[in-house]
Design brief:
The chain is α+β, with helices and mostly antiparallel strands and 164 residues long. It is 19% helix and 51% strand. Strands 3-6-5-4-9-10 form a six-stranded antiparallel β-barrel. A two-stranded antiparallel ribbon has the order 1-2.
Length: 164
């Protein structure tokens, strides 16, 4: 008989003892794999990169303030002191708005004295794989909205591209 009347395997080892030993081995193996495996090191390098930001439907006064802000630093409105880079260029186009005409058709009409602006920033930050970070370790993501300010202006826009 493999298990006797006392519940011992081959009359020597208790089944409960075997279950406890197997459970302890599994726990120790799990702890070893979790804490002693190759953790992998993130390679982070300080580098200069560029990003573009779109701001839409701003007034002429904001465009004038942006013009004065070329070659000045911008900072994140929500994170005090977080450098968002230096504005190196901008491109302004007349703002348009989709309106419905009396006959039911929709057209893109120019909004008088309003502009859509593409801002290009240069920033000294950190690059980790395909991720870009400010010098304060805040990530800059494409399609994310950021409120930024300079000495002359404060705007909110969406990051449309990031490149090195």
């Amino acid at each position: 008989m493999i298990i006797d009347k006392n519940g011992r395997l081959f009359g020597k080892i208790s089944i409960v003892d075997i279950i406890v030993i197997v459970a302890a081995v599994l726990v120790f193996a799990g702890v070893y794999v979790r804490f002693s495996g190759d953790q992998g090191k993130a390679i982070v390098q300080n580098d200069t990169f560029y990003y573009t930001m779109e701001i839409e439907n701003v007034r002429r006064s904001t465009l004038d303030a942006i013009n004065n802000s070329v070659d000045t630093n911008f900072y994140n409105i929500l994170k005090t002191g977080d450098d968002m880079g230096t504005l190196i260029n901008y491109d302004a186009k007349p703002a348009t708005k989709l309106i419905e005409k009396a006959d039911g058709t929709a057209v893109n009409a120019i909004v008088p004295d309003n502009y859509n602006i593409t801002l290009t920033f240069e920033i000294q930050g950190k690059i980790n794989g395909n991720s870009y970070f400010t010098s304060s370790n805040n990530k800059i993501n494409v399609n994310s909205t950021y409120g930024i300010k300079s000495k002359y202006s404060a705007v909110e826009g969406v990051v449309t591209s990031i490149y090195k």
